[in-house]
């Protein structure tokens, strides 16, 4: 009897204890301390002082572009100089492959017809994400493959943020909840997203009631709003990330060359690929004849994104196309349309697509669309797509916020290379993530995927190349001093370069000495403006020391250094010089679009800055008047693909320098008449009323008992 009675007492206690333990587990998973990327101390401490003077770090230099080209030529002259791998295409995937191969001790070259990140890789939504909308599909469609892709992407997201903390950061993203029953649905979904991230998570999601949601995102439409869920994903500067990947590969011994076109592939007597014929496109811009030469390699990797099929047809002219190009349009709006630290996702647009509304580089980015398209080097955003995005934006912003077409500062279209598996008979079978395939002659193609998983794609591609081409990875003996402090540049990386893949730990150039307070050191040492110093550290990491040192004095008391190339943005002249000397910038478009992001932020501001940028590059690269004219015309043509108004496309350099862009802008927005009709008043209306009184009345003292005197 006693034992039966005790069991009755113990059972509720056990149930209560189990429930408490389960609840504690859920709370721990949701609210456990997280290691926020970029918040830790820099792996390399800031420079110290010597004899009362701060001594900036001394970083290793990479080979010049001309030296890299000479290395390419030697591969065909001497068997010992043959490359293990030649990678065609230096976007996110190609540059990632080059870095992976170089850090495995392989002799690798990566060549790019245009510039690093010139295509799709610079035209993303700027997110580093697992794909919360893909998770929803995985659950509702019971699709394990979708679930696995989300899980893998969340793991890669953490690697991404850790290896490039200066170029990426966490970003809270709001999901508006319009009906009460949506709250538990979104809560479960975002918590499951947190759970899948596990130790790779950034921060836990949370619910905001209506008042708190409006406080966090004041521009949000208030009617029909119940509240909001907020979850976390990553954001990054895509083209700066791409350039950093390429430059890091170069530091580890890879041969990296942009503006180098592949015109053909070479094969041996057995029909196996053994090289590529290339042509440097820069001499042609100077009116000189371009030289073709051959590069020899044991293996060729095709990583050309939307142009994948053009390289595949060089290998096999009759091969079936595998790329299904899809256009994604984005628009840039002024920064006041979104909070500086909160993004927004609309999961249910008018046609069922998803649209993001995110703060980026001081402005607001909105997109994207998803439409079949043709493959062109510079796709144009259609007015239909731009207006659709604006229409969707108006739907969730407050009615008193009038989003106009003239608010669009820049707009672009990026081509996403969706791919079909050639081994699958159905022509509609699109690969969900990425595809790696090898042709009979040995062309290894890596296509598809997204920015977040670039590293995993690169790892799998190099793994396949090692097996297919019989390569032998080896330990890297001559490790570069990437951090600039002497000795191993891998301090605090944790990477062991023994021939295995270590890119999940190898930090990119600029990451070692970066911290969130580095900008203060730059202000104190160089006298930079605060927003300029913050921009430099978030774009170059510890290499901001070099950029600041290359900037010109201002002849003002403050700022001491850093002449802006646009008064609207924190880009300075030192960035142009650094881009030419250390990042292989060869054209003005390289600078306005991919070394800085001016063309993506404001097409008209980029046009206004263009004369100064061309002159700065001309000083560095010894351009003559003809070359400067070529750069002007090509840059204006490029800006047409970035949303530059048609009436500015024919404007001459002289007209731009004379301020005609600003005049045209004012006329378009009809501000001139507004200024004439409403000139600034010299006195307030209350002052006018006081002047109308008699001198005695207007100078009478206030009553000592007046509340104004208390």
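^ Assign residues to that structure.
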């Amino acid at each position: 009897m006693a034992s039966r009675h005790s069991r009755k007492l113990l059972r509720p206690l056990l149930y209560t204890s189990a429930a408490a333990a389960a609840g504690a587990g859920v709370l721990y998973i949701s609210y456990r301390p997280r290691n926020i990327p970029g918040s830790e101390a820099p792996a390399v401490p800031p420079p110290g002082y010597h004899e009362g003077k701060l001594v900036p770090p001394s970083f290793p230099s990479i080979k010049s572009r001309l030296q890299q080209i000479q290395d390419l030529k030697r591969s065909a002259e001497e068997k010992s100089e043959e490359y293990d791998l030649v990678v065609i295409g230096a976007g996110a995937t190609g540059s990632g492959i080059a870095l992976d191969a170089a850090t495995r001790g392989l002799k690798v070259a990566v060549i790019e017809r245009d510039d690093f990140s010139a295509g799709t890789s610079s035209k993303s939504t700027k997110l580093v994400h697992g794909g919360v909308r893909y998770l929803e599909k995985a659950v509702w469609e019971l699709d394990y493959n979708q679930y696995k892709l989300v899980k893998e992407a969340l793991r890669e997201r953490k690697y991404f943020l850790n290896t490039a903390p200066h170029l990426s950061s966490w970003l809270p993203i709001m999901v508006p909840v319009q009906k009460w029953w949506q709250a538990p649905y979104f809560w479960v979904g975002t918590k499951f997203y947190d759970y899948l991230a596990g130790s790779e998570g950034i921060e836990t999601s949370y619910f905001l009631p209506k008042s708190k949601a409006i406080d966090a995102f004041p521009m949000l439409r208030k009617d029909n709003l119940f509240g909001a869920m907020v979850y976390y994903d990553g954001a990054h500067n895509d083209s700066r990330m791409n350039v950093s990947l390429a430059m890091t590969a170069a530091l580890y011994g890879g041969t990296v060359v942009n503006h180098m076109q592949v015109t053909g592939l070479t094969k041996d007597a057995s029909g196996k690929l053994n090289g590529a014929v290339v042509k440097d496109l820069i001499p042609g811009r100077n009116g000189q004849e371009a030289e073709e030469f051959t590069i020899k390699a044991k293996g060729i990797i095709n990583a050309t994104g939307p142009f994948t099929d053009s390289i595949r047809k060089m290998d096999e002219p009759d091969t079936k196309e595998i790329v299904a190009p899809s256009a994604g349009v984005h628009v840039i709006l002024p920064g006041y349309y979104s909070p500086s630290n909160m993004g927004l996702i609309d999961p249910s647009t008018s046609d069922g697509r998803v649209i993001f509304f995110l703060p980026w580089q001081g402005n607001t980015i909105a997109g994207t669309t998803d439409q079949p398209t043709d493959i062109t080097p510079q796709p144009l955003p259609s007015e239909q797509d731009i207006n659709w995005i604006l229409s969707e934006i108006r739907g969730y912003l407050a009615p008193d916020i009038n989003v106009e077409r003239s608010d669009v500062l820049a707009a672009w279209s990026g081509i996403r290379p969706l791919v079909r598996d050639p081994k699958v008979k159905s022509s509609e079978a699109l690969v969900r993530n990425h595809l790696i395939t090898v042709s009979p002659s040995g062309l290894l193609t890596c296509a598809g995927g997204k920015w977040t998983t670039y590293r995993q794609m690169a790892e799998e591609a190099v793994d396949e190349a090692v097996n297919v081409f019989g390569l032998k990875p080896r330990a890297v003996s001559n490790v570069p001093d990437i951090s600039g402090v002497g000795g191993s540049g891998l301090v605090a990386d944790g990477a062991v370069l023994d021939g295995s893949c270590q890119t999940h730990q190898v930090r990119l150039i600029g990451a070692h000495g970066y911290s969130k307070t580095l900008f203060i050191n730059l202000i104190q040492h160089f006298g930079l403006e605060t927003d300029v110093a913050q921009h430099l550290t978030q774009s170059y990491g510890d290499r901001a020391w070099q950029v600041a040192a290359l900037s010109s004095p201002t002849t003002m008391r403050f700022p001491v250094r850093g002449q802006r190339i646009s008064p609207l943005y924190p880009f300075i002249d030192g960035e142009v010089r650094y881009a030419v000397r250390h990042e292989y910038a060869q054209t003005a478009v390289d600078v306005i679009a991919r070394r800085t992001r001016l063309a993506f932020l404001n097409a008209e501001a980029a046009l206004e800055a263009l004369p100064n940028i061309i002159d700065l590059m001309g000083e560095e690269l010894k351009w003559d008047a003809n070359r400067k004219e070529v750069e002007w015309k090509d840059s204006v043509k490029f800006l047409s693909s970035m949303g530059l108004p048609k009436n500015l496309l024919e404007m001459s350099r002289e007209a731009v320098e004379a301020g005609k862009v600003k005049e045209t802008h004012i006329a378009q927005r009809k501000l001139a008449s507004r200024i004439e009709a409403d000139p600034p008043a010299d006195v307030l209306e209350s002052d006018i009323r006081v002047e109308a009184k008699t001198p005695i009345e207007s100078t009478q003292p206030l009553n000592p008992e007046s509340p104004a005197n208390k």
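The chain is about 40% helix and 15% strand.
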